[in-house]
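Hi R.,

Here's the chain you asked about this morning:
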Amino acid sequence: MSHQPEDAQKCFVDLHCHTRASFDSLAAPDAVVRAAAERGLTHLAITDHDRIDGALEARDAAPEGLHVIIGVFLNEAVPPGLSPDEAIATIRDQGGLVGLPHPFDRFRGSLLRDVAMTAIGTQVDWVEIHNARLIGNGNELAAEFARVNGLPGVAVSDAHSTMEVGVAYSVVEGDPSTTAGLLEALAHCEVVRGRASYVIRALTPAAKLINRLRGNGRLDPSAAPKDRIALR
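And the predicted structure, written out as C-alpha cells:
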C-alpha cells in the first residue's frame, strides 16, 4: 500500500470529452470548458475524432483553474484509418498517452474487436472502466480487464454535449497536467460514476446532477460512496 501526503493536491479529471470538432457533437469548445469549470473539474481531456483544433480552441478559452489536455497530450491529430498498432505508435511518437475507450461497448467501435486482449493490455496506459454513455455490462467487463492486466481504471463522461461534461470523472492526487504526472496520479485513482442518459432524459443541466457530488464548490467523491470505486 502506498501512502500519499495528507496535503497532496486533489484533482478532478475527465479524460474523454468531445466538442463540435467531432462529427457527432455540436458542443462549442468555449461552452464545454465553461461547463467543466462550473462543475468543479480541474483537468479535462478533449478527445475529438481525428482532430485537435477543437481541443486547441478549448484550451485557449479555458477559465482559470481548468487545465485542458489535448487528447491526450498530442501535438498533431492522429489520422483516421490507421490500425490500432499504427494509431498507438503515432501517439507514442508524439509523447502522448493511450487510453482504452469503452473496450466492451456492443454498439460502438472497440479496439478489442480488432486486437487480441493480451496484446492491447500491454500497449495502453489506462482503461475506461466507467464510460457514462455505455449501455449494458461493458463497464463491468472493462473493470475486470483492467484488473487482470494491472492497468489503472478511469471514469469518463465521453461527453458529446455540454450537459454531459463531468457527469463521470476520476479523482486523483498530484499533478495530472503532464504525461508523467498523470500516469503517477492514475496509480492511485478513485472513479465517480454517473450516466449521461440520466442527464439527457431529465433535460436539465448536468450541474443539477453533479452538484450532489460537490463540496465547497468542488466535486467531492465522498458525497457518493456507493458510486465510487477505489483503485489501489
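Confidence is low (pLDDT under 50) at residues 1-5, 199-211, 221-232.

Let me know if you need anything else.
M.
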